[in-house]
Amino acid sequence: MTRMGLARPKVNLFLHVTGKRQDGYHLLESLACFADGGDRITVTASEDMSLFETGPFAAETGCQSRNLVLLAADQLKQKSGIQVGARILLEKNIPVASGIGGGSADAAKTIELLCDLWDLKLPAAKLQQIAGTLGADVPVCLKGQTALMSGIGDHLESVAGLPDFSMLLINPGIAVSTAQVFRTMALPDEKLTVPDFSGMDQLSFFEALGQCRNHMQPAALALAPQIGAVLEVLETEGDCKLSRMSGSGATCFGLFRTLEQAQQTQRRIQEQHPHWWTLASCIEGDAEKV
Length: 290
Fold this sequence. Notes:
Elements: E1 2-7, E2 10-20, E3 26-34, E4 39-46, E5 49-54, H1 68-80, E6 85-91, H2 102-117, H3 124-132, H4 138-143, E7 147-151, E8 155-158, E9 165-171, H5 178-184, H6 202-210, H7 217-223, H8 226-235, E10 242-245, E11 252-256, H9 259-272, E12 277-283
Parallel strand pairs: 5-6
Antiparallel strand pairs: 1-4, 2-3, 3-7, 4-6, 7-8, 9-11, 9-12, 10-11
Helix pairs in contact: 1-2
């Protein structure tokens, strides 16, 4: 028996750091959405647990014993009490340590696929609890749809009535340590109010996002000036309505009205910067549900 699926990249359209707990965890507010494409994961029934990696970024994933895919599989196996294993194939198509939740999305998709493979009927709350032990982004990746994140990423709120829009993701080919960004950054003085995005048309949505920030961006820029080069290129594109860094970087995004505009911009930028990783995607809203 085999199951397969895509672990779509998670993009932080804004990311506010609102405080820091005594245990060292930072408190966040973020609107996260999911782009098309991503890492491909295949799980096959097996007596033992094993992980095989392929794809353009497989060599950059580091020590297998700390790979979130294996950690997720082990956690799910322990919590469910199941005695079988799985052969997991990870096709790594998303840059590593790039601020778009690649490892977290891989872990979440692994949980979903193994639940199907092993015919587990665990409650959603239990699965979210397992996801929370693996990292701040894993719960929203397990949810798999646009959501407002708060707390340390453990509180998720769906947002109804969002418009369709398109996005171009760009990574300049560098990895950025989230932990190092957090160590470097100072807690912001500004207290920003999160807009009510429900029911906005596309232009209003872009304008509302423009009032928000990524509080991790200045620290990441200091560590990786190449981020600034990506943002400068996006800002020169007339069709780009908003450019910003996602997560702790170094991936940045530009927002566009249509997928055609995003793809045209992608082609121009690829000609100028052939070594940059890019991904154009349409983000489907649900305005009809309002």
